[in-house]
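Researcher: Structure prediction, please.
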Amino acid sequence: MTATASSEALTESGVQASSARRREPRRVNSRAWQAIAVAVGVGLLAVTALDIVGVTTALGEPPFELAHDSLTGGPRTVTRITHPDAIAGAVHPGDRVRLVDRSILNRLAFSRSRIGDRFAFTGVRPDGSPVSFVATMRRAPPAELTAWIYQLLRLVLILAGIFVAVRRPADRVARMLAMFFFSIAALIELNGPLTPVWLGALMLLGVTPFAEVFAAFAAMEIAVTFPQPSARGVRAVLHRVNPWVLGVLLVIQYAGVASAIVPSRPLFPWLQPIGGVLSLAYFGAIAIAFRIAYRGASGGDKQRVAWVWSSVAIGFCGPLLTLALILANVPLAPWMQYLGLTLIAIPFGLGYAIVRHRVIDVGFVLNRALVFGTVSGLVLLAFGALEWLLGNVLVRISHITSAALELGLALVLGFSLRGIHARVDRFIDDLFFRARHEADRALRAFARDVVYINDPCIAIERAHDELVHRTAAADAGVYIVDAVAARRIDREAPPVGVDDAALVRLRATRAPLALADVSTALPGEWAFPMTVRDAVTGVVTVAAKTTGETYAPDEIATVETVATALGRALDALHTAAVKSDLARVLSGGAPLETLRGSADAAAWIRAMRTAPSGRSQPVGSLSGLIE
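Model: Predicted structure follows.
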């Protein structure tokens, strides 16, 4: 429940101070961590699926209603009898009752009871006389809307965590974000009756207490390392003590679990208020760390820190308010279930930050998670509506068996799922990525068009304008490389030596280069080689974005396509000009000095730019040269 701008650049670009770098933990085996994270995500998905199927098909409830007046498994007050025929014995509203078998496994089985399960109760009436009876679990009514909202949130968190783990296993910030998502997802339970008792006990007594603490630990790790760790000060201190705080809170948490196992004799009754106060203080420290990070950030990093912190703060305000109410001994009430809905802000707020502000480059995460969540929601709503219609209308009219109708309904929805998914996919993609897709299409269209431009000056000017406009770059540059230097031809600028580190790297890799990774005289954030016949003939550079965002992988690939097309177009025009001058010398009697004007590509283009009125028209474009 990101100057570097993607988390990969933040943790791996080497811009952190050397003292901060020395304190970084030992490098994690990214492949092993990725495998473990994916396994955790798949396990959580399996538990979620069991919960959803169990609640929709086999969930039972007691034939009476109980007040929420005990948090420790003690006696609870009966408020209403709903199915007297399912009770063997006498019980009345106002009686205080509890399970006869108060073992943790029996209490867990009662909380996840199936239809037909029987439980023995004992208690006292208001006058002090004893009560004993056996209750048979009845079919529970359909889960409330809030329960399904929580489950959709749970699915989105799990899928987001899996995608982050798959896409950025070597990035520390991304790893913490994935574990943060998994921890919050583990806290959302539906008490499905199909979940085996041993698995339910493992989740309740082992996973959930750990996830409660680890979610706060992961939030603190993000707060003290994003956008980059501090070498000294409050954030550095919090970074060092965070693992120790995690250990202390885990001890308190599991001590509380031990007390819950034996509710009649609490082992450590004083630990609960201490743990609650420490938890509130922990989140206060997280807020301080984010505040310091925001004050120390600049440019686009300020926006990223603000979005991440706002998402975490809004998401946890509901659960923290619930914790404060419990510490204040406020009785539980049905309306408190809505406080946890603030957790929705975490995946969607961080999702927006990922897409809009590139906290880490996993825009695909939010896209896929939203598509899956929306499709799941539509299918659940359609199934519920159609099942009600078939069960309450068609069965009475046609007397067709409900099983046959549900089978037909399942087949219809199954065959419709592909079409629903395709439409939702297009809608979500257009909603979040429309501007970027339009810019991508425009740049690729220019890459196709540029080879048909006959004037190199026009080709260069259009390339410059398209790159600045479509990528929101502060500037773009076009360089032609000769034997001595790379010379900028779209604007006046000093030449860059041919053995500049960036030019050497471009010749060696022929791939886009993040200029922050090397010491270079080339200005900008990214450099793209213009390759012709396996040689680098020029370079296209783009500066940082005016919006403070970073370049996404698909944007980098598109600019690379433009650079390659521009390089081929300029090479073809230059070759055509040389061919034209050579023809004039050989057949027209022109002096050999004529060849000097077109021998050097950079000088030829600059001469055409400085003498626009008298320049000769090149003889053809790339397509004309081929013909």
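Model: The domain at 7-55+143-361 is CATH 1.20.1070 (Rhopdopsin 7-helix transmembrane proteins).
Researcher: Thanks, that helps.
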